[in-house]
Amino acid sequence: MTGTSEDVTGGCLCGAVRYEARVYLKDAYYCHCRMCQKTTGAPAEIAVLVEPGTLRFTKDEPTYYRTSPFGQRGFCAVCGSRVIWKGIGDAHPEFTNLSIGSLDCPQEVVPTSHQCVESQLSWYRFDDGLPRLRSEEIPELVAAWAETALDESGVG
Question: What global pTM score does this model have?
Answer without folding.
Answer: 0.89
